[in-house]
Design goal:
There is one protein chain. The protein is built from 4 helices and 9 strands; from the N terminus they run E-H-E-E-H-E-E-H-E-E-H-E-E. The chain is of the alpha/beta class. The strands form 2 sheets. It has a 6-stranded mixed β-sheet with strand order 2-1-3-4-6-7, covered by helices on one side. A two-stranded parallel ribbon has the order 5-8. Helix 2 links the parallel strand 3 and strand 4. Helix 1 runs parallel beside helix 4. The radius of gyration is 17 Å and the shape is globular.
């Protein structure tokens, strides 16, 4: 199978894909007529900063997935780790099929992740989510690629945030991304 990986390459995920498949990594914006789409059987997006055109998504029915470091339907869009603490919503990782919305497609698999509010920072919790995503992907990729995972719809409840939504909260990050998560917990609810 020829796989297109959209986003910054992840060594563990790439290594697992290459055990069985051909892999092309790509970080630039993709258009319907982009050469990088030619001959591809499956598309995986992880940390990709561009929204895909609906025509691209329709071109790969049930063969285009996104790896998102949130426990969907919570924290769709940008900065999901930060928002899980600001709004006290579940934290986790989700692999979902892509549809025309942003992080709204049917879920294939997910894990809720608990953090240590006395020890974790925004950065350490982010890195843990990345490791958890890698582990979830490696454990499920063979079943996903074979179409053996049954997708299920997300609930109507949830949240979405654009990149700019975090700007009013940036002054709270007194130590940058090393700010302890306890310092930002629930702040957006006040």
């Amino acid at each position: 199978m020829n796989i297109l990986y959209l986003g910054s390459p992840n060594a563990k995920i790439s290594e697992d894909i290459l055990k069985r498949d051909s892999l092309t990594c790509y970080k630039e914006k993709v258009f319907e007529d982009s050469d990088v789409l030619q001959g591809k059987d499956f598309v995986i997006s992880f940390g990709f900063r561009f929204v895909l055109q609906p025509s691209i998504i329709r071109r790969f029915p049930n063969k285009i997935i996104n790896l998102h470091i949130s426990h969907l339907p919570w924290n769709r869009g940008a900065d999901p780790n930060l928002w899980s603490f600001l709004e006290m919503t579940p934290s986790g990782v989700s692999i979902h099929q892509m549809d025309d919305g942003i992080d709204t497609g049917p879920i294939l698999c997910q894990r809720e992740i608990l953090h240590d509010v006395d020890k974790d920072t925004l950065q350490s919790s982010y890195h843990r989510l990345i490791r958890e995503m890698e582990d979830l992907f490696v454990s499920q990729w063979e079943n996903i690629r074979k179409g053996e995972v049954s997708p299920y719809k997300q609930t109507e409840v949830g949240s979405y945030h654009a990149r700019a939504d975090k700007n009013p909260f940036l002054p709270l990050l007194t130590e940058g991304w090393n700010t302890p998560i306890r310092n930002v917990m629930g702040v957006a609810l006040k």
